[in-house]
Amino acid sequence: MLRIKGGIRKNHDDWKRVMMMPKPVIDQKKCALSKTCMDVCPMEVFAEQDGKMTTPNADKCIGCKACEVQCPEGAIKVED
Ligand code: SF4
């Protein structure tokens, strides 16, 4: 069991889970703003901001890869 400042305790498995969080990465050069990722993502990770697709809720990603598979431009890669 690890203890960190502020009294939050995490065991090894908790830390491992945090460190292995999946993360969707958008290639802005490929993205054509089809918004398919917004439609298929079950966790509402994506949002359009200033004419660009962004990932404001990337910390909610569960790594299902629906966005990566469904993106018609192949603009998303989910890093494990
Ligand atoms: S991998 Fe799944 S949960 Fe994560 S951003 Fe893509 S569609 Fe959403």
Q: How does this structure look, described?
A:
The chain is of the alpha+beta class and 80 residues long. It has one domain (22-79): Alpha-Beta Plaits, CATH 3.30.70. Helix content is 22%, strand content 22%. It has three helices and six strands; from the N terminus they run E-E-H-E-H-E-E-H-E. The protein has helices at residues 12-19, 36-40, 66-70; strands at 2-3, 9-10, 23-26, 47-49, 52-54, 76-79. The strands form three sheets. The chain has a two-stranded antiparallel sheet with strand order 1-2. Strands 3-6 form a two-stranded antiparallel ribbon. The chain has a two-stranded antiparallel ribbon with strand order 4-5. The longest helix has 8 residues, at 12-19. The chain is elongated, with a radius of gyration of 15 Å. It binds iron/sulfur cluster (SF4). Iron/sulfur cluster is lined by residues 22, 24, 40-43, 45, 61-67, 78.
| Total strand segments | 6
CATH class identity: Alpha Beta
CATH architecture classification: 2-Layer Sandwich
Number of domains: 1
Shape: elongated
Summarize the structure.
The chain is built from 3 helices and 6 strands; from the N terminus they run E-E-H-E-H-E-E-H-E. With 80 residues, the chain is of the alpha+beta class.
